[in-house]
Amino acid sequence: MNYASMIKTVSMTGALLLGTSFLAPAAFAGECPADKAGASPLSVETAPKNVTDNVIGSIDLGNGYNIAGKTMRLRKLVVQPGGVVPNHSHTERPANIYVVEGAITEYRSTCTVPIEHKAGDVAVESGNLSHWWRNNSKKAATLISADIVPTPMMNEGGM
Fold it and tell me: pTM higher than 0.85, yes or no?
């Protein structure tokens, strides 16, 4: 390869990397501010209110994937204004929640302040985390939840 070709290749690679850096997402929006991490002093809601939770797809991970007793499931939740997804744990159930439309407030056991999520945000839920959500807006919030659950829990609500 001659010098001119090498410069052109390096320039094109640099431009490509620079261009894709604008497409890569920053840190997840709606995370707990670093200076607010800690045990939550906030109240806890334990009953669902004005929320629908529908399983829209699932895969038994023991059937061909060698993860016996686990199911990957996809759900659609619609939380009406004032609605609540009650307190629940993620110690056995990692999940990603995508906010399709609307806005919703999350109350995490690991954050001293409520966390606001808007359309386009993703909440990562795993490890020693329990939390609940409330729609404090005047518009329904639509969420897509992708989680891995113990197979007996697959069709249970529990958020």
Answer: no
- Secondary structure (DSSP) of 53-108: EEEEEEEETTSSSS-TTEEEEEEEEEEEEEEEEEEEE-SS--EEEEEEESEEEEEE
Q: 22-66, pLDDT tens digit by residue?
A: 443 334 567 899 999 999 988 899 999 999 999 999 999 999 999
Place of tokens 């909440």: 123
In the numeric block, the tokens 């919703």 are attached to 104
Cβ neighbours of 18 (radius 10 Å): 9
Residue with the two structure tokens 């497409």: 23
- Structure tokens belonging to residue 61: 């991970």
Instruction: Using CB atoms within 10 Å of the CB of residue 74, give its burial: 0 to 12 exposed, 13 to 18 middle, 19+ buried.
Output: middle
Q: Which domains does the chain have, with CATH numbers?
A: 34-153 (2.60.120.10)
The most distant pair of C-alpha atoms in the chain lies apart, rounded to whole Å, by: 70
